[in-house]
Amino acid sequence: MRVFVTGIGCVSGIGMDVGEHLRSFRSGRDGLGGITLFPTRHDLPVSEVKAGNGALAERLSLSASRTFSRTSLLGMLAAKEASGDAAIPDGSGVRIGLVSATSTGGMDLTERFYPLFREHPAHGRLRYAARHDAGDSTERIAAYLGITGFRTTVSTACSSAANAIMFAARLIRNGILDAALAGGTDALCRFTLNGFASLMILDKAPCRPFDDTRAGLNLGEGAGYLVLQSEAALTKPPYCELAGYANVNDAYHQTASSPNGAGAYRSMKACLEKAGVLPHEVDYINAHGTGTVNNDASESAAIRRLFAGGVPPFSSTKAFTGHTLGAAGGLEAVFSVLALSGGLLFPNKNFTTPAPPAGLIPVTRYAEGASIRTVLSNSFGFGGNDTSLLFRKTDRQP
Amino acid sequence: MTRQPPVYINSAASIHPPLDGVGECLPGKCLTAVEPDYKRLIPDATLRRRMSRIVRMGVAAGQACLQDAAGVSPEAILTATGMGCLADTEKFMNSLLDGDEERLTPTAFIQSTFNTVGAQLALLNGNQSYNTTYVHRTFSFESALLDALLLIREREAVDVLAGAMDEQTPTLYTVLQRLGCWKRAMAGEGAAFFLLSGRRTDGTLAILQDVELFSGDYGEQAIRERMERFLLAHDAAGARTLYPADYKRFCGEYPTAASFALWYACRELREAEGKRPVLVYNAFLDAHSFILLKPV
A95, A175, A392, B182: which has the fewest Cβ within 10 Å? Predict the structure, then answer.
């Protein structure tokens, strides 16, 4: 059973929908700015979605009196766009599910609850605490879109959304679902910011993925979803096919990637094999490329090794969006689909100097009309999680 | 329906509250898992010490499950948790608040990540295969089990390690108490892992026939009807059903209690004379699941 992409939706610091993302990429505008969402003593660039929770709720026509985590609101916005794009007709009998990913869940609300609670256990508003768990955002998105069928949540740090897409594809291939909204959502919060600050991998300047001077990542927030549909349940011409996927574990260190990129190499290789695509047939790689010294060296080594015959055009879009963690695989899957359908090459903003030993040079100029038939998207994360997805052009019609 | 290749449960390990403890539901009581001697399961003392309680329980249950199936290197490690590593989350939050965002050390933050146990199991066993974590309330464990079932049916994997863990903390207990959860239920916790396989062995405990998840406002009668249809479709009309009350009187209420129930059902199936299929029924609020086991 083949699995196709029929809908896309996204929100991040560079746009509230797919169209605005395209305009930002075209004009080279990143989403970076200061932290406005919560009080903090850290002075670091982050890529916030340019709308407060009230404005997001209004956009979604939600009652202002109801409590939603920012993760839920961002997820609803992107999932709604993807679902509207796929436009599966009501009453079509298509069994649709939701596989959503998040790493922070309702932590933004917990941050409002816990300081009061720890002063006195009877204090702190329960409506905030009840939104803490990761499954809450998925349930809110499902309820908002009227998805009553199968739904679940994946959380594997920075590879979460790619793993959600992979599991959704498996559910479709096995006939459990005909279609699935799959992707991820994560809101910036104080907890995550301080976590990454304590790991000392945040750059005080705009991040520079794959550059020799790179010094860490910038955090971002957002959501990205695909609608996946089985071949038999297609109701419109698809964007492309999700032709391959693979998830492997680096089993090297809890938070660091192996220097030789063994995990990244194996996940890309297994993904291509699953799709039946040879390395020289890959037309563009949307790299994980966080801007940390460790990730980019490891990923570069893996790319060099797998594409020894010639490295295809590749770039990291994280200098635009920041690292959106559990949402990154979803956003970048949307970008990959856009690359295929519009022949787009996204620039790796802020790159100037190749980094030895791999010395890779990413795409630095935005381009349209390139001949792109296959796109590989990488998502790697804490816990040694390496996931790669392969999207392939299709002329399949419903 | 095409005939699916059978999926076997070849080993099972669980860390749970004492079976000879209360044995009945005392609303508001908080059950605590009996932790094993971890030295045999996690020999590295530094690593053991660094792990928080839920990570230790999860890793130990996973290791025990693998040790029982000596020599097997699974092609997938699937973990599940409803609430994740709460104690670590709270620890990091407290140091953030106490130190006003200064002088933070990353250990608690790293361990607060939902996939910590899955990652540790991969590291400890040098296992480089498929590794993912499901975190969807009552459906967390069932999602992992479903993924395992599909991986084996698709022949993407022969052996899959799948398990779940949730811990009870004073904060969680208090918050849930304020939300009214303990008026009728006992608080619980636990960690349980299973080695699922497409290959039958001498140690095979049961056949995992199917997993079904559904949600909605189902009354008792509607559940019973759905259950009958499910059992009939799987040629298991005579199955014995384990209702939530049958196992939550031992393990208490927690998001991944179905993992304890599956362990309990495997044990029953091995010890029972009659060898009837067993249906594990799990329910919390409007989330329901069926896990059907057949004797080998």
Answer: A175
